[in-house]
Design a protein that fits this description.
The structure holds 2 protein chains of 2 kinds.
Chain A: E1 3-10, H1 16-29, H2 34-53, E2 60-67, E3 71-78, H3 101-109, E4 112-117, E5 123-130
Antiparallel strand pairs in A: 1-2, 2-3, 3-5, 4-5
Helix pairs in contact in A: 1-2, 2-3
Chain B: E1 4-10, E2 15-24, H1 29-42, E3 46-57, H2 59-74, E4 79-82, H3 86-94, E5 102-103
């Protein structure tokens, strides 16, 4: 790993844009093209939305952006309730569902996505995108 | 960048024209939703969204659009989106909303 950026963010909607801007900046520095930067920005926004919405009483969540030279690895970790990922169902497109789109978007835009979740012990979304 | 909406009644077309400037995300979605419902309560018409200056939309913003679309459909009206930036069009395509919403 060349460098990493770590942020501790308040679990409040108005700070998610700080996470998005930081991710865009790092992605730009690493040489991603405009389309990939937009993808990364949205995936980070969705992961942070998740942390804000499901953080319970925890005041903050953590964002880490790891510059691996050939790829960017992003980790978003909250201390919320965690969730049953086996029960997660991808939304059926065309069915006009208002929920469940966030994770679907992340999986569609990033090259690799891993979700670690433990009931009562938070959720960590680890995702990466390769520099083309 | 915050969200700014410029809404006008288009007499000729008999539509609500809404120019969206900025970002629709988890922090601005409530403002967006309230403004749309206000217009729809005032007069039930087709909505035309000019997205030339829409910089960003996430799943929470799409959720507002989906639920608003359902509201509008109840009155047999429609929503139209114009001038989407490529990054926004990509999100609509990814989520299948390009097949449901009228995009021109």
């Amino acid at each position: 790993m060349r460098e990493s950026v770590n942020l501790s963010l308040p679990c409040r909607p108005e700070y998610v844009s700080v996470a998005r801007l930081t991710a865009s900046f790092v992605a730009n520095q690493m040489g991603f093209d405009i389309e990939a930067i937009e993808d990364i920005k949205l995936a980070v926004g969705e992961a942070c939305n998740n942390a804000v919405l499901h953080s319970g009483n925890s005041p903050t969540y953590q964002l880490e952006l790891k510059n691996m030279e050939s790829s960017l690895i992003i980790e978003v970790k909250d201390s919320g309730r965690g969730f049953d990922k086996e029960a997660y169902k991808a939304p059926e497109l065309g069915q006009l569902q208002e929920n469940g789109l966030g994770l679907f978007i992340i999986k569609s835009l990033m090259d690799d996505v891993e979700i670690q979740t433990f009931e009562g012990n938070g959720t960590k979304i680890i995702m990466s995108k390769d520099v083309e | 960048m915050a969200l700014k909406l410029i809404s006008n009644y288009n007499e000729k077309q008999n539509t609500w024209n809404v120019e969206i400037h900025g970002e629709i995300d988890i922090s601005s979605k409530s403002t967006f939703k309230d403004e749309l419902l206000l217009l729809n309560n005032e007069k039930q018409l087709d909505f035309v969204f000019n997205c030339e200056n829409l910089e960003y939309i996430d799943s929470t913003g799409l959720g507002v659009l989906i639920s608003f679309y359902k509201n509008v459909k109840v009155n047999e009206k429609n929503v139209h989106f114009e001038k989407l930036k490529p990054s926004i069009a990509k999100v609509f395509t990814l989520t299948g909303l390009d097949k449901i919403f009228s995009i021109r």
